[in-house]
Each structure stands twice: as structure tokens, then as C-alpha cells.
Amino acid sequence: MTSSPTPSAVLKNTFGFDSFRPGQREIVQEILAGHDVLALMPTGGGKSLCFQVPGLCLEGLTIVISPLVSLMKDQVDALVRKGVKASYLHSAQDKATQHRIMDEVADNRVTFLYATPERLAQVKFRERLKNVIISLVVIDEAHCISEWGHDFRPEYRLIADFIAHQPIRPRVAAFTATATVITRHDILNSLKMIKPKVFTASFQRPGLKLMISACHSSTHKLVALARILKLHPHQCCIIYCATRQATEQLANFLRATIFSLNQDKVRAYHAGLDNEEKDEIQRKFLNDELQLVVATNALGMGIDKSNIRVVIHYHFPASLEHYLQEIGRAGRDGKPGTCYLLFSAADLEIHQSLMENKPGKDTLPKQKLQAMIKYATTKHCRNFEVISYFDEVVAKYCDHCDNCLRLSVSASALELKRKKSILQLVRNYQRETGLLQLDLYSQRLAAVIAAFGPNSTAALSQLPGIGNELITSLSNFTHQIVSVCSDQAKLRETDTAHHQQSLDVDSTRASPRLRLPPPGPTFSPVPA
Q1: For 477-487, how does the pLDDT look when each residue is reduced to its tens digit (9 = 90+)?
Q2: Cα separation of 458 and 485, whole Å?
Q3: Looking at the chain, which terminus has fewer C-beta neighbours within 10 angstroms, N or C?
Q4: What region does 527 belong to: left with phi over 0, alpha with psi -120 to 50, or beta?
Q5: pTM value?
Q6: Phi/psi of residue 369, each to 5°?
Q7: pLDDT band at residue 436, thresholds of 50, 70 and 90?
Q8: Residue 25: CB partners within 8 Å, gap ≥ 6?
Q9: 208-408: CATH topology
Q10: Right CATH for 7-200 from 2.60.40.1090, 2.40.128.20, 2.60.40.10, 3.40.50.300
């Protein structure tokens, strides 16, 4: 009988790492000692190693319960590439494939079996596992088991019954990236953990800059997006949208404007795509064949890419749990990343409408939304707002959110200068064009066209909420806007270079020579 490999040997020989990250070794040791474990680790914190290493040290089968097929496939493919015997079951597989996998499990030819929680309730599945030694049951994205969590799935409640009916009770290890104190207690109770060891890693990600831009219209939001994308050329980026339709519309718009010469670098991703198309998009994004993916939260748990530099929330997230998990996709390689939230009142109306249409009087979604609003509107440290929400003690000042960065560069003086420049801009434009009553929408529209180029009007007219206003507004101002855009394009490069050196927070500093006003005096510059 051969002796079991040590965790350090598995880490080195299978995964190629010389040492564990902080906190990983302790979790591995507790699992190998036979204890139940609940571990809270931020996205990108290396939680998969915490159960994969002990799974390879133990005799028998490790079952991993996961909510998404894309996440299961991603992890299984990675293990197979390393020579580990791993498989996953899902409903889209044909019967022959499922039977083959279960035959391999019954013959002890599989070390890791990934499955959705619904699979645990199937009688045939339980029957096939009767004579299999299950040494470890892992619950990934464990917040899904809690009604207090942000992605509650009733099927997760089946897990405890499945564990209880095993001839020999396996170790239980639950992992999540986001859980408040009340959610943690609910996870422990729902899984009926026995004397569990609880590990809580810090939720802080000092390598991520947290930036918020308050947008007052759909055109205003497009201006902010254009500025952000021009600040980060050639960098891998995810743009999160609230709906499937929005991802398609925004991806089409970007392909018609900023990425018109590289349309194959942008794709939309959502749950409505067929599996083959989703797999193709993930593969291309992982291999750097795509630069930008416009996605719903379906991409959130299904992608493991280390060099994402920018995450943009084009629509307002429903909770800080969602937000923290999604921005955690940036900078997983340890290098800096930047996270932008484009905040508008229209986004809040969507969330409130959805909550009003839900049956019952559950106040939890409203509480979570209010916490998210507080984060987006605070004038103090944003890092403090999001980290303290998860009951972690943290300083009330950081050096990586827009509010704290603004303090560090004497924002009051800069803001006064910016407002004076904007006022002078508007006066110059009105005097030189004779348009003394230039309406606010036309100002914003002109700024959008300036950001995306004069050829963008056709693409703009296809976007909801813009098309009708565009036709009316352009009837009188088209030729003037295009000429102003041409002037602004010639001046922007030298002006931007100077301004980024002085502020490092805005690529569009006002210049007395420019004749085109930005979208409105209340628009905050988008930090780099």
C-alpha cells in the first residue's frame, strides 16, 4: 500500500507552486485532519487549491458541488491538463456520456467529480455511489445555500441530506468569496457542519482602483464609457450589463464605433447563448483573442483569467456581494486593475421595479440595494464601505478609491479650476455659434459624438432611449457638431497628455481653445 502524498508535494508536482498563499496551508491541514471547514476567500484568492490539494492527498472520491456548468468545465479542464482524473456531470450531456462517467466513478477511476446540487436528489445517482468511498464533499459558491445570500438556490438545501445518507460521513468543506456574518451562520446550519473550522481571509484588494462616475443620462454614460476605454487601450476588459439585450446592444455599438477596425475583439456573453458559443467566447477570451467581453453576471463565476485589467459595471449591481465578486475578476495575477461603476438613477428604477413585481414582502433585496447605493454615493472611502459591510475591520482611508485619491491631489482646487473651464467653454461655444440657448441634451449629444467620432451617429440612433432624441436634436446642429468634433480631435492629444501628467485622473481636461462643452457641469472626471 503506497503512502499518501504530502500537501507540499502535491502543490509542487501537480500545480507547479513552491509554496502556499497565506491561509491556504491551514485550510488544507484542517481538511486532511478530518474537520469540516468553511472558508471565505476573495475572488482570485486561490480557494480551488484549498480543496484540490487535499482531494489528491486523500483516498477515495471528492465530490464538488458547483452552481454553474461553465465553472465546472473550467476547473475540470484545468485538472485534466495537469493529469488529474476529473469529470463533471450536467443535464446537457447525453445518457451514454453520463453512464460512462458514472461507470468510471464506480470503478474508482475518478478522483474529482463535479456536479450541480440538483444531481444529488436523483435516486440513480445515489444508487451508483453506494459502494464508492466519498472522502470529501466540497460546496463551491456556498453562499447559494443561504436565503440571506445574494444568489440563493433552493437546490443547495439538498446537500445536507445527501451527506447524511452516506455510509461513512465525508469531510465537508464550503467555500465562498462573499458572505456576511448572518450568511455564514446560515451556511453552517444548513449544511449541518460538525465543529467546523471557519477561516475568513481579508476581502481587501489594494491592487484594484475603485472608481465611480455619476451619469445623468444614457448619452452621458456612453461618454464616460468612451473615456474609460480610451484610457485603457489594448487591455483585457469585462463590461457587466444587467440584461442579455443590453449586452448585445452595447457590444454591437462598440463594434460600430471604437472597435470598428477590430470588431472581432468584442463579443457579448450571456446565459441565452448556446453552449458552443459560450465555450468559444470563453476560450478566445482566455487565449487573449478577445480584448473585451460585454456580459451579464453569467460570466462572473464561469471565467478564470488572470490578466483582466479593467472591469466596468455599465449598470448598477443589485448588491455589494455581486459587486465585490465581479470586480474580483480584475488583477488576479497580482498586477494593478481598475474597476469602474457608471451610476445612474435609471438603473435604480430598474432594480426597484423588479423588486416591486416579486411576490411576498422580502425586504432583504432592498437592504442589499441600499448598501450598494450607500457605497456608490459616499463622499468618504469606498474601500471602507465595501469591506466593513462584510464585518471586517479596515482603515477609513485607502489609496485606491476615487474619493481618497481625490483628497490626495487637492481636489477642491482642481474642481474649482474645472468648473471655471467648463463655464468658459460653454460661453465660447455659444458666442462663436450664435446658439445662445444650447439645450443640455444637445451638449451631451455633442460630447458623445466627439468621444466616438462623427461617424457614430448611425450606430447611436440604434440604441434605445437615444434614437428618437437623436433625430430631433441633430436636425439643427449636425453640421456644427461635426465641425466642432473635428477641432476637438486635433486638440485632444496634446491636452490629454498634459492633463494626465498633472492629475492622473482625467483624460479630457477643459481647454480655453476647445469649443465643445462636456456633458454637463456635474460630470466628475473619470480617473485613470
Answers
A1: 444 444 444 44
A2: 16
A3: N
A4: beta
A5: 0.72
A6: -65, -40
A7: very low
A8: 7
A9: Rossmann fold (3.40.50)
A10: 3.40.50.300
